[in-house]
Amino acid sequence: MDVHDKGRILIAFRTSLQARLEANATMTALARDEATSEESRAENKYDTRALEASYMAAGQGERLESLRALVAWLEGVVVEPHRAVGPATLVRAVSDAGVERTLFLAPQGGERIELDGEEVELLGLGSPLGRALAGMEADDEVEVDTPGGVARWALDEVV
Fold this sequence. Notes:
This protein has helices at 3-36, 49-76, 128-133; strands at residues 90-95, 100-106, 112-115, 118-124, 141-146, 149-158. By secondary structure, it is an alpha+beta fold. The chain folds into two domains: 3-76; 90-158, Transcription elongation factor, GreA/GreB, C-terminal domain (Chitinase A, domain 3, Roll), CATH 3.10.50. It has a six-stranded mixed sheet with strand order 3-4-2-1-6-5. The mean pLDDT is 90.
């Protein structure tokens, strides 16, 4: 894993999230139209279609803004090597259970891409693992409290 890989991973995340952003913008517009449609108008006091549609539109709008912020952040990332884990760091970690993960640290996570047959996860800096990894370097080990108990992670590489 090197800076070249990191650049390719960054491009793949940008591309994937841009496509998601466009799809989410369409879904948000549809939800907003549904919420304001004449057909959603309540027919009686128990009819909650308009209210439900407005909740859907609000949720879609929040997700859209979240995606916009993440895409904007990714567009500003400069590909450079890092010694310690922080924003825009690429990390390969192995758990004490033998699970290997390739992680790209960002303000928010949850997205995944596959590149050359390897899955790379966008890991939020505010997640339990993201907080535990912050400031760590290659060959360091961290412990993370999980619902299943304490998980130990060894950092194989930090780029």
